[in-house]
Amino acid sequence: xxxxxxxxxxxxxxxxxxxxxxxxxxSSPRTKQGIVxxxxxxxxxxxxxxxxxxxxxxxxxxxxxxxxxxTEHGDIHRxxxxxxxxxxxxxxxxxxxxxxxxxxxxxxADEETIxxxxxxxxxxxxxxxxxxxxxxxxxxxxxxxxxxLASSFAQASANKSMLLTGGAVLAGAFxxxxxxxxxxxxxxxxx
Length: 191
Fold this sequence. Notes:
Layout: H1 5-22, H2 29-60, H3 66-84, H4 93-123, H5 126-144, H6 146-156, H7 160-190
Helix pairs in contact: 1-2, 1-4, 1-5, 2-3, 2-5, 2-6, 3-4, 5-7, 6-7
């Protein structure tokens, strides 16, 4: 994972859109629900990182984020909340998920063509510092939802290779978390 804030955001976007491409109307209800749960969790973590760390840093640099936060994130939050109360057997489950993905695609297009390029142009090296803060917060968020993430990933996975990949991802997250923890300890001892 990149340490630059903008690279992390692009990686999150790619992760969600890759999951969305795996969603098929004729998939089993279990697979659909796993993909939806995984997408919703990924979007909630992504939005928290943007709203808590990235967007405030952009605002401090004089970059307007109001449209992205107020409109796009609000619409995405509402669709995520709705999907979390639904079942794959609900008549409008597929359409609600597709509405979410359309909204995400619109948000990604706006963010990647406007906000991220502006951040890279105006913030430069500061994006590494912001990215490190985002990585620390991401590890906290992932750790608090590890069971949910593992469960939804397993539910969405159709074969053993996907389970192995998921295990590798979780192991990697654990190792990064430990490394960040040790790095924080080392910095405290140096102070």
